[in-house]
Amino acid sequence: MSLSDLTRSAVELAVAEYDEIGPERFLEKYGFAKARKYFLVIENREYHSKAIAGAAHGFLPGQPMPLHSIDFSGGENTVAHVLGNLGFVVRSTEPKPRNPTWNRDELILALDLYLENPASPPGKTSSKIAKLSEDLNKLAAILGVSGDGQFRNPNGVYMKVMNFRRLDPTFAAVGKAGLSHGGREEELVWTEFSQAPDLLRAVATAIRAAIVAETLHTAQPKLDYVEEAEEGRLLTVLHQRRERNRGLVEARKQKALGETHELRCEACDLSFGDRYGPHGDGFIEVHHVRPLHTLREGDKTALTDLALVCANCHRMIHRRKPWLSVSQLRTLLNELSTAARPETN
User: Fold this and answer.
1) 276 and which of 49, 58, 225, 280 could share a cystine (Cβ 3.0–4.6 Å)?
2) Is residue 34 within 8 Å of 26, Cβ to Cβ?
3) How far apart are CA 147 and CA 136, in angstroms?
């Protein structure tokens, strides 16, 4: 048996013993320390939740032994969860986490839903709001974002979708105003996507597809030097993953060696072999040139989708939004080089 086998009657028997012999003798008898964070609350009385749970195990049918402190961990996901499922109230002394600010991915999905029908957005109890709430919670799990028990619930999602009305000129034109609260990122997403509905739909569709794919293998995406792209963090992660695919990198390098017999940065023309000698031979990075919203998990990447770049140029491409293309960076470098040349009479 384990903690998950506890029953409500077993917990009540442990509570009765606690009341009879007092907290100090109870804790000493079962070998538990005083609770610090989670307390079982019954009729305004507080009980050390982990000790109650351990002792309750000994009151289960079949005469099992009580659980000792080292047999299980306390906390929200163990004792508090089990006791809560049995209908008990568990109080935490830890402050509840505040829900984080809406990120770019979330706002793109919310705006996509709003622009489906700005004159009559889906209602608070609609299936579309419920589905968006579900998707946002999956996205949060993928990105490692956490909040309180009300995180991106349908009511909050509906409010955020309706926030876009304050930015909608067609809504303001008839003398109406939307919900006033909103942030800077919300305004940026509106400015960038509200006049490009096809792009918005493509990006939102790609994010939703990525949520499904990432949920299936519970990825823990990380971005190092890469600045989050206009299309959000999740698609940026997929982009970065392709750039680090060793098989694709090696295939692209072999293609260049077969065609030109050397590896040069397509932005600044640097050859690591020329610069560092044998120590630099064969070294180069790759940049994926396709728009992020066209990427799908499992898609085959063509070698023509990859550009060879040196480490410095790669970081400059990704340094800030909007990302530079390889050709834009090459033009920038050429202009700087021309400006630096001394004038001749």
Assistant:
1) 280
2) no
3) 12
